[in-house]
Design a protein that fits this description.
The complex is a heterodimer. By secondary structure, chain A is an alpha+beta fold. Chain A has 13 helices and 30 strands. The radius of gyration of chain A is 24 Å and the shape is globular. Chain B has helices at residues 12-23, 28-46, 49-59. The chains are: A alpha+beta, B mainly alpha. The A-B interface holds A 377, 380, 383-384, 389-392, 395, 402, 405-408, 410-412, 414, 417 and B 4-9, 12-13, 16-17, 19-20, 23-24, 26, 28, 31, 58-59.
């Protein structure tokens, strides 16, 4: 039996009987991914495109209903673009730049994300999570057509994980009965309530925030601008301590109300009661209640927590199974996709025998650091939005009170600090900074995009170790062990590329990891220095 | 010198967190007293009576 826990929005990988389940043979797979959400699908796609077989097991047969994650950041879109799924996401998504912050009846200020020019992808799009998953599966189907060894098995529920010395054994339930497989590596991408984590008896500690938020996704034709509107102490009736209005594709609007801690969940989820709240909010903006329907509603509480270690022998945890944040700042799914990208190339190289197994420890240390950064930002936003002591309420209200008339108070107003990728400053495996170059491209940083001819720089960083040479003459590829760098030479950089990668220098050489993070950079090409940096990136990343 | 009302603190979120952390575990009276000591210390650092007078006005 495989229980159905939720409805699906799209049936993406319908169940088909598994031959191994009836033959009784225990097949061995290099990588088994538990959970076909944004993180598991991105990981499978990345591995498969590299030629490493990936098997995804999901206990449902598609993307769960409900918009869930809605804000996808540029870094996520850059990763999806490299994986062949970015364009459909941006085409479908709603691009937004302007946010307005209100306090009661008054507008405090507005901000513009003011995206830099010269990037392929926008700073953010709003897109319902089921679409995000569907576009990843579309890209997986395309990759499979080109021979990528990816398999997704719907309604295959993992019921036991038994880690061993050089592999793990998984027990799997299907509608036709159970079977077993062996996996060299297991990656648990099974969400905040990870069954894998529970099965292994691992803890997930952190801070519980005593707050309930009501989500109402409503479908309506409204001519509100495509902006993020956020209210502290909203003026409309029964709206709670804060409220949010944000547009998604398909004429869906995300509305959030902060309800407080002691609430009656069933009562608050009564459609009549939700409609009364939504009516009050919408009529305060339009003077009348527009026609709308409730597309999806939910009440959520949240915690900020993470596992102590993201690696346990041959089992890895990625995405919400490893770390959980409040939704403010869009740091959940976005950070999970970065986990997938960090792990994919490392698993690929280790399985091909091109890098030491210890490289995989750097997945854990780097992404634990990323999770801490996200938890810090998310906790601060939550503390501002839901003051938990009289004095923090006093300071919060003082900030809101002054924000309209004194610009200095605006940076303190915190309704979420939007997701940006982290810099692995000072981590082992990252090398020298021998260029007096811009800080934004220092070793450890994710490469910012920039125009190159008719396309963009990140289009050229296709997932291998890359030697990026700007100005000067093209260097020869550098080989370390069995890994050779790709060479991307740009003789005549665009102004944006020069500003982001050269600064005052007239030429530069960058060594870039497969996940588009800078390893090291130099003012001029030195084959031995590149070779040393490449070696350190593979063999020294776990020191 | 005029009162600077533009953002002037590096890492405002970090500062805000430190400010609230200083109040953690204090009751109302203790918090008020901490705020008073803090205001006096900062006022002394600013020194300029014109600036302090402007600050009093804007905060009212």
């Amino acid at each position: 039996m495989v229980a159905v826990r939720y409805e699906t929005a799209f049936k993406l990988y319908p169940y088909t009987p598994v031959p191994a389940a009836t033959s009784g043979t225990v097949a061995r797979h290099p990588v088994v991914i538990i959970g076909g959400g944004p993180v598991g699908l991105a990981l499978a796609l990345d591995l498969g495109r590299r030629g490493t077989p990936a098997l995804v097991l999901d206990d449902h047969d598609g993307a769960g209903l409900g918009s869930k994650a809605i804000c996808f950041a540029k870094r996520t879109l850059d990763i999806a673009t490299r994986l062949g799924a970015g364009a459909s996401m941006v085409d479908k998504g709603v691009i937004w730049n302007v946010g307005k912050v209100f306090h009661g009846d008054g507008k405090l200020f507005e901000f513009n994300l003011l995206p830099e020019t010269g990037h392929r992808n926008p700073a953010f799009i709003n897109l319902q999570q089921p679409y995000f998953e569907k576009f990843l599966v579309d890209a997986i189907r395309t990759a499979q057509g080109h021979g990528a060894p990816i398999e997704i098995r719907g309604r295959n529920q993992v019921t036991a994980v038994t880690p061993g010395k050089d592999h793990a054994i998984l027990d799997i339930a299907t509608p036709d009965g159970p079977y077993k497989i062996k996996a060299d590596w297991v990656v648990a991408c099974d969400g905040a309530r990870s069954a894998t984590r529970d099965m292994l008896g691992l803890s997930f500690d952190g801070r519980v925030f005593e707050e309930n938020f009501l989500i109402a996704d409503v479908r309506m034709k409204a001519d509100f601008p495509t902006e993020r509107w956020f209210w502290f102490e909203p003026p409309f009736k029964d709206s709670g301590q804060s409220a949010l209005l944000h547009k998604q594709p398909d004429d869906i609007w995300r509305i959030d109300f902060q309800l407080g801690w002691d609430i009656d969940r069933d009562k608050e989820l009564d459609p009549g009661r939700i409609r009364a709240r939504v009516d009050a909010m919408l009529s305060s903006q339009t003077g009348s209640v527009p026609d709308y329907e409730l597309a999806w509603t939910s009440i959520y509480t949240f915690q900020c927590r993470r596992m102590e270690s993201f690696r346990h022998g041959n089992v890895f945890f990625a995405g919400d199974s490893a770390h959980q944040v409040s939704p403010f700042g869009a740091r959940g799914a976005n950070s999970g996709v970065q986990d997938a990208e960090n792990l994919a190339w490392k698993l690929d190289l280790v399985l091909k025998g091109l890098a030491p197994e210890a490289l995989l420890d750097s997945y854990a240390s780097e992404r634990e650091y990323g999770a801490d950064e996200n938890i810090l930002n998310s906790s601060r936003a939550t503390d501002f939005m839901t003051p938990k002591s009289e004095i923090s309420q006093t300071f919060r209200n003082a900030v809101l009170d002054m924000a309209a008339r004194a610009p200095f108070a605006r940076p303190f107003v915190n309704s979420g600090r939007l997701s940006v990728p982290c810099n692995y400053d000072g981590f082992p495996g990252f090398g020298v900074d021998a260029l007096k170059g811009p800080a934004v491209t220092r070793p450890g940083a994710p490469c910012p995009d920039a125009p190159v001819g008719q396309d963009f720089l990140l289009d050229h960083l296709t997932g291998d170790f890359t030697l990026l040479s700007i100005g000067g003459v093209a260097p020869a590829p550098v080989t370390q062990g069995e890994i050779s760098t790709r060479v991307v030479h740009i003789a005549d950089p665009s102004p944006d590329l020069a500003a982001r990668y050269l600064g005052d220098a007239d030429r530069a050489v960058y060594l870039i990891r497969p996940d588009q993070h800078v390893v090291a950079r130099w003012a001029k090409f030195d084959a031995q220095a590149v070779k040393d940096a490449l070696h350190a990136s593979l063999w020294g990343a776990h020191a | 010198m005029n009162l600077n009302l533009d953002p002037n603190i590096d890492d405002p979120d970090g500062f805000y967190q430190e400010l609230l952390a200083a109040h953690e575990g204090l009751d109302k009276q203790q918090s008020d007293a901490l705020n008073a000591r803090l205001i006096l210390t900062l006022a002394n650092h600013i020194g300029d009576r014109g600036v302090l007078r402007e600050a009093l006005e804007i905060a009212k």
